[in-house]
Design a protein that fits this description.
The protein is an alpha/beta fold and 438 residues long. It is built from 19 helices and eleven strands. The protein has a seven-stranded mixed β-sheet with strand order 1-2-11-6-3-4-5, with helices on both faces. A four-stranded antiparallel β-sheet has the order 7-8-10-9, covered by helices on one side. The structure holds tryptophan (TRP) and iron/sulfur cluster. Tryptophan is lined by residues 5, 68-72, 101, 103, 106, 188, 191-192, 208, 210, 214.
Length: 438
């Protein structure tokens, strides 16, 4: 199995994806005590994560944390694109500062758009809809990759610690791949890590909410962040906690600094072995590692480093297109666009593939299959906030009480309300956009 961020593959088997790529399951213990978890979280649409424990820690301990995500404007915005922004709006409500990259360089490099085209599309489609959906300007910045010199510089500089073989293995690049495309994952790494530069809020936990197709970029940026660190805090073979200096300059000074920080953190049983470039902490457990690591990371800038913490990520499932394939801007009948008229949307819903039986009679007798139904997916992902109400639809479908025609009409009605609401709110969006652009 391969994850290709630029192909239009659908991913069906999320469990297998998780297992094969080492994505962790987004289990209830990670989110159940967050304030009002969003429906995408409660319903398992967000099925996986990397390092979310870190984010949870920041939320619970009321420490600052950032969200960074990006959009590649390469067509009209549809319900699939809406999911990430629903997630972002939830994180904004619970205190994250929000950073959104418009991936105009990536769209230029990989999709053949001009920077000007992407800019227009980003403004008229995505950003206007984000505002209509409820993204607030407070603690929120949206920027274009091509206009942020720090992002581009980081992309270039951080490229030092990854090599061509790794890029080939991860992305399947070959001799024909154009260099702008080859470089785009590093720009994305620049997006993800730049929020931890002093100028953008400094070293802190960062969450990157994305579709699972973006996982290769997440792995790359986590690896790169780690590779640029000066300290490594880890459990040693004989089960002690060790702080190791990873570079060959300033070893003495870095060890002195670590001793001071460790003492400030309350550890007193320290054993320094300069030849090993190490300090062993006798009175710490592996539980303490994240805290120690973060305290040390924050001091690395004094020695010329970045101290980037590894970014965390959440991965959401993809909403199925109304035709049964992937929801895609290039196949208008598969997607409901946020700029569709209610009439267009209704037509698409009425034509959608359902989990209904071959005849009414059979459906009454054996019930429908909501788990295989795209209309049900619309309720689950988008149209119904109340879990009980959703459960009732599920039950009455399974039991054969509900018939598809009536059910589709219900979905179409809710979709109409949603689209009308978005369209109304989008009217004032253009004049507000400036407040978001950095
Ligand atoms: N590659 C993403 C996409 O295809 C867009 C993107 C650019 C992004 N930079 C990012 C996503 C940073 C998350 C984080 O949609
Ligand atoms: Fe889907 Fe509704 Fe038909 Fe059940 S009744 S299969 S949920 S459309």
């Amino acid at each position: 199995m391969k994850i290709d961020p630029w192909s239009s593959t659908t991913y069906q088997d999320y469990t297998r994806l998780r297992d094969e790529f080492g994505i962790e399951e987004f289990t209830e213990d990670l989110w159940k005590d967050l304030p009002n978890p969003d429906k995408l979280i409660r319903r398992g649409v967000i099925f996986g994560h990397r390092g979310f424990q870190q984010i949870r820690g920041s939320i619970i301990n009321k420490k600052p944390w950032a969200v960074l995500t990006g959009l590649m404007p390469s067509g009209r915005m549809h319900l699939g694109h809406k999911m990430v922004i629903d997630e972002v709006i939830y994180y904004q409500k619970i205190g994250a500062d929000i950073n959104i990259a418009v991936a105009d360089i990536e769209a230029f490099a990989t999709r053949g758009f001009t920077l000007k085209e992407t800019k227009e599309l980003a403004l008229s489609e995505y950003l206007s809809n984000y505002i209509a959906l409820g993204l607030k300007p407070d603690k929120c910045r949206i920027y274009f990759q091509s206009q942020n010199q720090d992002v581009k510089d980081l992309g270039y500089i951080l490229g030092k610690k990854t090599n061509w073989s790794a890029m080939q293995a991860t992305y399947g690049f070959n001799g024909q791949t154009n260099m702008a495309h080859v470089f785009s994952p590093l720009i994305q790494t620049g997006d993800i890590l730049h929020v931890q530069l002093e100028k953008y809020g400094g070293i802190r936990s960062t969450l990157v909410p994305v579709g699972v197709d973006q996982d290769p970029h997440i792995r790359l940026s986590r690896d790169i962040a780690q590779a640029h660190r000066y300290y490594n805090v880890t459990v040693t073979k004989d089960n002690k906690i060790g702080v190791f200096v990873k570079i060959d300059e300033n070893i003495g000074k870095l060890l002195d600094n670590a001793e001071i920080i460790l003492k400030q953190c309350g550890y007193n049983k320290l054993k320094r072995i300069t030849d090993y470039k190490a300090i062993y902490i006798q009175d710490a457990t592996d539980y303490d590692i994240p805290k120690i690591d973060e305290a040390l990371a924050r001091t690395e800038t004094k020695f010329g480093g970045y101290g980037f913490l590894q970014p965390s990520a959440t991965f959401h499932r993809f909403i199925t297109g109304l035709t049964g394939e992937k929801m895609s801007s290039s196949k208008p009948e598969s997607a409901i666009f946020l700029t569709d008229s209610p009439k267009e949307a209704t037509k698409k819903i009425m034509n959608a593939k359902t989990g209904g039986a071959v005849s009414l009679e059979e459906q009454k007798k054996y019930g429908g299959k909501p788990d295989e139904c795209i209309v049900y997916e619309l309720f689950l992902y988008q149209l119904i906030d109340d879990d009980k109400e959703l459960q009732e639809i599920y039950n009455s479908c399974k039991s054969g009480e509900k018939m598809c025609g009536q059910c589709k009409k219900h979905a179409a009605q809710l979709m109409e309300n949603l689209l009308n609401d978005i369209q109304e709110k989008r009217k004032n969006a253009p004049e507000k956009i400036k407040q978001y652009l950095s």
